[in-house]
Every structure is written in C-alpha cells, then in structure tokens.
Amino acid sequence: MLFPRAVLPSLLHLTPRWLEERGLKGVILDLDNTLLPYGEEEPLPEHQAWLEALKAEVPVYLLSNALPDRFARIQGRLGLPGHAPALKPWLGFQRALKALGLPPQEVAVVGDQIFTDVLGGNLVGAYTVLVPPLREREFFYTRFIRMLETPFRRPRGGLG
Ligand SMILES: [Mg+2]
C-alpha cells in the first residue's frame, strides 16, 4: 500500500504518451511540492508548459491538502477542476475519480508524498506515481516524515 507503481525523476517525464502506454486516461495531481514549490502560488515556467500540454490531452484534477482560500486562487489561475482541503490520504480520491468519470485503474495519482498521495491513491486502486518534492520544508516534522518514507520511494517489486 505504501509503494508507488512508478517513480519518475520529475513531473516533466509524465507525458500524454507515457500515460497512454499504461492505459491511463486521467490524472489526479497534487499541488504543493509536486506542481508548485511549497508555499508558492505559481508553477515554474517549465511546469506551466508541461501542464498546458498535459491538460490538452487528458483530464487533470487537482487534489490538495492546501487551505481553501489559497487553493481557490491557484485553481482559478490554473483553470483546472479540483478541491481542497482533501484530507489525503483518507478522503478526496473517490470524489476526484467521480469528477473524472474514470475507473481507478485508468487514473494516475501523481504526488511527492508517500503517506498522503501514494497511500491514498493505492487505497482506491489508482496507478500511483511518485515524483521528487520540488522544495523541502525545513521543519523537523517534514524531515522526520521523509525519513520514514525513504524505504518506500521506489516502485513496488523492486527496480523500474
Ligand atoms: Mg505534496
């Protein structure tokens, strides 16, 4: 439940073609440290371009634990469906799947955290994709969580 199905070196590797090759038809995307550097409200230019190319081909749904006001500003700017706070890993994924109108096995859940994104995506049977965090928070709590995550930051079943 804690291992992602795939680990990518960056978000930019998640292309429409990569998704198509795996039978994936939609994306549930995390916000903080996945699409946006933590605490920021605008993506880096390369991630903005990546998102434009992706959403032209497949539906993308933003699922974040961010606070609602900040999330609403970001969502408005990006022009994507989504909701927050999602209370990942326990809540939010079913609602996201319903909004996408796709079965879980055809949806990639993409995020930087094992205990929210990967666990939550695996619990609903989606195809989980782990990417490296864009910016580490320096809080002790986050460093502690990263340490607990370390054994799981690889695909289930070994290399790949
Ligand atoms: Mg995140």
Automatic annotation (TrEMBL):
MF GO annotations: phosphatidylglycerophosphatase activity
Keyword Hydrolase among record annotations: yes
SUPFAM superfamilies (UniProt xref): HAD-like
Name of a matching Pfam family: Hydrolase_like
UniProt keyword terms in alphabetical order: Hydrolase
Signal peptide positions on this chain: none
Domain of life the protein comes from: Bacteria
Record carries keyword Heme: no
Name of protein: HAD family hydrolase
Native species: Thermus scotoductus
